[in-house]
Specification:
five-stranded antiparallel beta sheet, six-stranded mixed beta sheet, alpha+beta, Rossmann fold, binds magnesium ion, binds adenosine-5'-diphosphate, elongated, OB fold (Dihydrolipoamide Acetyltransferase, E2P), 345 residues, 2 domains, 22% helix, 21 strands
């Protein structure tokens, strides 16, 4: 069931000529974790603030659980939206204990606030003394308190801005998994912002990618990584090699040799053949395969990156097993397991 819909949401800040967010539309399913990714300035925080009710769009509307909360001049106030927010710096009240911090989040909620607060603190895995103050906790624990404070009122949607950016790399892998489990256990629908593709790929059910205020693609991580709709999305999720192909009836002439492919007959102009380093497979010498001159091999323990050059010195990278041996002037043969074709003009 869809819990949140954005329809053609557009926002320009008054001081700026450029759109912060431009005609962005997407739906969020109940219980899912959606990651909003994009470079700095792509409009991620603006989008969260528009959903939370901290900003109002110039156009478009927002529907939350079947109710229009934003349209034209209509704007349901932030505190009436039943949306929880976890800020990047956690924004805990330093003079309140962790229990009081969570109870503060419950001020519009009926019922036994003390009991709800304690249960939520347990849900996020805090076994600490609840009378401690935020400064007595580690960063990871403070984040759990912030999460408990936002989840306790049972929000319809939970918004998290860069939840992993204050954690060091060692902690990050662990915390990502814990936060995902807490969110799933509580059943809340969550949208989190990140500029780190690894956060998004490992934590989200679906990912929406923004570029200069435009939504580029929204889908499950595997599809974004393996079937990106455009080169921007493809490059955002890791290195893409690019070679030029000239179509004939049977395939493409490339600087790395001829590549048989049925799709070639559908193209009149030159194409860009885009592929990831792990989608090229090194093969034994054969005249049907593509090939390039070995330029460099870099060893990474669990894999190697082999760089090949064409006649003009243009390079591509191939990821391969760590135990393959190469000689300096080798000609390396390869095929492409997966690739994208794009008209080059
Ligand atoms: P992100 O979170 O992806 O880094 P933001 O949503 O913060 O991006 O910003 C999107 C664009 O809007 C940027 O060009 C930014 O400079 C601009 N912007 C953000 N907040 C304001 C503001 N309060 N006033 C003017 N421009 C802003
Ligand atoms: Mg931001």
């Amino acid at each position: 069931m869809i819990i949140l819909s954005l329809l053609e949401i557009t926002k320009t800040y008054s001081k700026s000529k450029e759109f912060a967010v431009n005609k962005v539309s997407f739906d969020v399913e109940e219980g899912e974790i959606l990651a909003l990714v994009g470079e700095s300035g792509s409009g991620k925080t603006t989008l969260l603030r528009l959903i939370a009710g901290l900003e109002h769009p110039d156009a478009g509307y927002i529907i939350l659980s079947g109710q229009k909360i934003v349209e034209g001049n209509l704007s349901v106030p932030a505190h009436e939206r039943k949306i929880g927010m976890v800020f990047q710096d956690y924004a805990l009240f330093p003079h309140l204990t962790i229990l009081e911090n969570v109870k503060f989040g419950l001020k519009y909620v009926q019922g036994d606030r003390e009991k709800i607060a304690k249960e939520t603190l347990k849900l996020v895995g805090l076994k600490e003394d609840f009378s401690k103050y935020p400064h007595q906790l580690s960063g990871g624990q403070q984040q759990r308190v912030a999460l408990a404070r936002a989840i306790a009122p049972n929000p319809k949607v939970l918004l998290l801005d860069e939840p992993f950016s204050n954690l060091d790399a060692m902690l990050k892998d662990q915390v990502r998994e814990e936060i995902r489990q807490i969110i799933k256990r509580s059943g809340v629908t969550a949208i989190f912002v990140t500029h780190d593709t690894r956060d998004a790929l490992s934590t989200a059910d679906r990912i929406a990618i923004l570029h200069k205020g435009y939504l580029q693609q929204i889908d499950v991580p595997q599809v974004l990584y393996e079937r990106p709709e455009n080169p921007y999305v493809a490059n955002f999720f890791g290195k893409m090699n690019q070679i030029i192909g000239v179509p004939t009836v049977e395939g493409f002439y490339t600087p790395f040799g001829f590549m048989k492919d049925d799709r070639a007959k559908d193209f009149k102009n030159r194409v860009r053949i885009l592929f990831r380093p792990e989608h090229a497979l090194i093969k034994k010498s054969h005249d049907q395969y593509l090939n390039g001159k070995l330029f460099k091999v870099a060893y990474f323990g669990d894999h190697q990156i082999v760089k090949l050059a064409d006649e003009d010195g243009k390079r591509i990278s191939i990821k391969t097993q760590p135990n393959k041996k190469f000689n300096p002037s080798d000609r390396v043969f390869f095929t492409l397991k997966e690739f994208l074709l794009e008209e080059a003009y």
